[in-house]
Amino acid sequence: MNVIRNYVFRLYPTSPQRDRLTAMLHDHCELYNAALEHRREAYRRAGASIRAVEQMAELTDMRAARPDQAVWSFTSQQQTIRRLDKAFKAFFRRIKAGEKPGYPRFRSAHRFDSVDFRHGDGIKFDATKSSPGHATLRVQGVGVIKVRMHRNLPDGAKLGQVTVKREGAGPRARWYVALPVEVDTAPLPETGRTVGVDLGVAHLLTASEPIPDLTDHDGHAPNPRHARTATEKLATAQRALSRCQRGSNRRRKARDRVAALHGKVRRQRVDGARKAALALVRHADVIVLENLQTANMTKRPKPVPNGDGTFAPNGAAAKSGLNKSILDAGWGVLVNAILVKAEEAGREVVFVNPANTSRRCARCGHTAAGNRVAQAKFECLACGHVDHADRNAALNILRAGTAHRDAA
């Protein structure tokens, strides 16, 4: 089975190279915004739609008039135009689907963090002339950058699109190169197991049965709470940022510190999600998950007016704490990691309706809100079955997924 696997390696540019990479992002951001302005004005003044091909044809004249833009790869600038074109296509698709349109917006240089290339045209990745675990990346206008390889590319890998991206800002920023490669993966041996997984806050997940290297004997996987662990450092950095004058160098450095802390939390969350997903796909052939709508679950509660200009308590403070815990758990990151690992391993992922999974008895099927005695305790009012609430939910999810597959 052939899948596209993204190999991401960290770059170690020198200080001058880091400045050139930053300048490259800035110039591509300027190009993106200029192309967007071109489209906006053409439609506003004449009702004309500008195509990506027409804007690419103007790049030659632009590069002749702007020597600073001509330093960079012509193909990478074409890719930036295509990037804007994809944004417009997504905009029109959302309009046809009746969704919130989300018109393409101008990009800030601080938030334009990646540039796409075509390998061999303005960029070249080379791992043959370096020592094991190291490679080089030659970027037009920047030079030869050192690359650390934590894993090898597959033999005979053909490189197409190459993305250079930045994480963070300033001297604390990390630079990476992303190489999508088509690889031939062999499915893992079948285990004959189907597992139901309940995502939670007290525990990151609870499985319907213990999973080696992931859960305890009760099926619980601990929630690392990376954001909560970094709360004190983040709060200190945010306070320092709020005291700085806008536009000052101190504010820029303080902003970089905040970005670096958030970047560390994100990397920890992604790493944990990938390890958990790998343990799941190694253990079971079929993984059953709830089809959770995290965006809806983390909405703020609506105010409750009393009619006299005041508002009744609506539990906003408690809901805010729950929302932070849900987002810190990173359910979406974990589900995406499971989908990616399952595709590579030839496993099946089934999504079921989450309604009443925590209120239904896994033994007799009785459903009632009173069955949930406490956050962690389930006690059926009909048959007296007692279990951990999350484990009971995982068994219900497993049963619903099995029924769904049998019906299909």
Compute the gyration radius: what is it?
26 Å
% residues in beta strands: 15-25%
**What's the β-strand tally?**
16
Give the overall shape, derived from the CA principal axes.
globular
Helix-strand sequence:
EHHHHHEEEEEEEEEHHHEHEEHHEEEH
Number of helices, counting only DSSP H or I runs of 4 residues or more:
12
Low-confidence stretches: none
Question: What's the mean pLDDT score?
Answer: 93
Strand order of the largest sheet: 2-6-7-1-5-4-3
What does the largest sheet look like?
7 strands, antiparallel
* Helix percent band: 40-55%
Distance between the termini: 24 Å
Organism: Dactylosporangium roseum
InterPro entries: Cas12f1-like_TNB, RNA-guided_DNA_endo/Transpos, Transposase, Transposase_put_HTH
Family: In the C-terminal section; belongs to the transposase 35 family. In the N-terminal section; belongs to the transposase 2 family.
Protein name: Transposase
